[in-house]
């Protein structure tokens, strides 16, 4: 019997629905449950063929346990080794190399010295930084946010140099990114599962969290949706994420990838809506079953992205002949009325593209 486990924190609806959906499918020799860990011993397995990780970014103990499980043959979704190394600034640099439009972005040293360091630890860093060069490159308005954070924590909107320094002086030991603000006409949040299943959702990040999928905008054009799909697949295949979201701001008809390092993305029914929730539960369940069937004890069953593969093979990052992937894409559709705050609204049935 192969077990699929899910490791999670404060979520409510998705983990239970995910486990129930897999067990309801009654695949031969496959079952699902919440992960239970009572001890972790070096180089000994956790007895799961697949573990879907939704919490180790916040719990270092779980991250160490998942790496240990992975070297014993567990297929961990997402790869805990890559996720440990990845961050948002690298993602932006990779996107530039892949030809995916992103906002102009720079990385900044922490305002306060990290623990156990002194001024002598930063003798390679110029003081002051070339602030004029940085501001001329990024421009204002701009956003400042942690280079490896999420959940809109410590995010600042900035309108001038003075505004920047006022906020930067409050960032303590966070390593921050300064990023051009893209004034957008439309916005999308896209699930990508298995590097081939894509759900495109029009989204309004300026709404309260539970109303962001009720955007009040006209449906997007096929041309924009096709380009969004292309970029979603490319980014996830190169990063190697099994379960991720990518956000795009549309400016002058061009999708700019704003945020695409979300390997434990929100999947709660109270925020994404019933139709999107149904898609993510069904797709995640099918993909976990697929991975369980392919899992081989004692082997590396992790997903490694094209960036790692090309690096190891000493081949160009982007080959002349692009890799083609058979993908399925659906578009979440909602009507245009904004509901009463806190109420979950059922979306119109998704249409296939």
Describe the largest sheet: 6 strands, mixed
Strand content: 15-25%
Task: Tell me, briefly, the overall form.
Answer: globular
Mean pLDDT level: 91
Tell me the strand order in the biggest sheet. Answer: 12-11-9-10-13-14
Give the distance, in angstroms, between the N- and C-terminal Cα atoms: 37 Å
Q: Catalogue the unreliable spans.
A: 335-353
Number of strands: 14
Individual helix count: 10
Helix content: 25-40%
- Computed structural class: alpha/beta
- What is the C-alpha radius of gyration, as a whole number of Å? 21 Å
**What series of H and E elements makes up the topology?**
EHEEHEHHEHEEHEEEHEEHHHEE
Quick overview of this protein structure:
The protein is an alpha/beta fold. 31% of the residues lie in helices and 21% in strands. Residues 335-353 have low confidence and may be disordered.
Any overview of this molecule?
With about 350 residues, this protein is of the alpha/beta class. About 30% of the residues lie in helices and about 20% in strands. It is built from 10 helices and 14 strands. Helix 1 crosses helix 9. The protein is globular, with a radius of gyration of 21 Å. The relative contact order is 0.16.
């Amino acid at each position: 019997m192969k077990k699929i486990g899910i490791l999670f924190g404060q979520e409510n609806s998705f983990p239970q629905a995910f486990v129930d959906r897999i067990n309801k499918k009654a695949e031969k020799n496959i079952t699902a449950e919440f992960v239970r860990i009572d001890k972790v011993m070096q180089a000994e397995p956790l007895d799961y063929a697949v573990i879907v990780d939704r919490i180790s970014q916040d719990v270092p103990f779980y991250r160490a346990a998942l790496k240990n499980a992975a070297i014993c043959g567990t297929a961990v979704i997402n790869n805990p080794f890559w996720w440990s190394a990845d961050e948002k600034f690298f993602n932006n640099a990779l996107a530039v190399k892949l030809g995916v439009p992103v906002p102009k972005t720079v990385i900044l040293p922490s305002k306060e010295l990290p623990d156990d360091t002194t001024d002598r630890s930063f003798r390679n860093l110029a003081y002051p930084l070339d602030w004029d060069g940085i501001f001329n490159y990024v421009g204002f308005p701009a956003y400042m946010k942690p280079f490896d954070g999420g959940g809109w924590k410590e995010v600042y909107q900035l309108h001038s140099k003075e505004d920047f320094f006022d906020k930067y002086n409050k960032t303590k030991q966070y390593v921050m990114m300064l990023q051009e603000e893209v004034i957008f006409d439309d916005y999308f949040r896209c699930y990508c599962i298995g590097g081939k299943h894509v759900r495109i959702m029009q989204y309004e990040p300026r709404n309260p969290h539970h109303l962001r999928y009720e955007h009040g905008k006209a449906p997007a054009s096929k041309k924009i949706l096709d380009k969004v799909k292309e970029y979603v697949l490319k980014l996830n295949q190169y990063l190697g994420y099994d379960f991720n979201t990518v956000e795009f701001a549309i400016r002058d008809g061009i999708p700019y990838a704003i945020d695409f390092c979300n390997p434990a993305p929100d999947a709660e029914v109270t925020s994404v809506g019933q139709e999107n929730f149904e898609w993510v539960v069904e797709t995640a369940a099918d993909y976990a079953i697929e991975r369980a069937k392919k899992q081989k004890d004692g082997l590396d069953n992790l997903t490694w992205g094209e960036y790692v593969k090309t690096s190891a093979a000493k081949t160009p990052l982007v080959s002349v002949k692009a890799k083609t992937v058979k993908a399925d894409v659906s578009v979440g559709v909602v009507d245009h009325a904004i509901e009463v705050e806190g109420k979950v609204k059922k979306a119109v049935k998704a249409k296939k593209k």
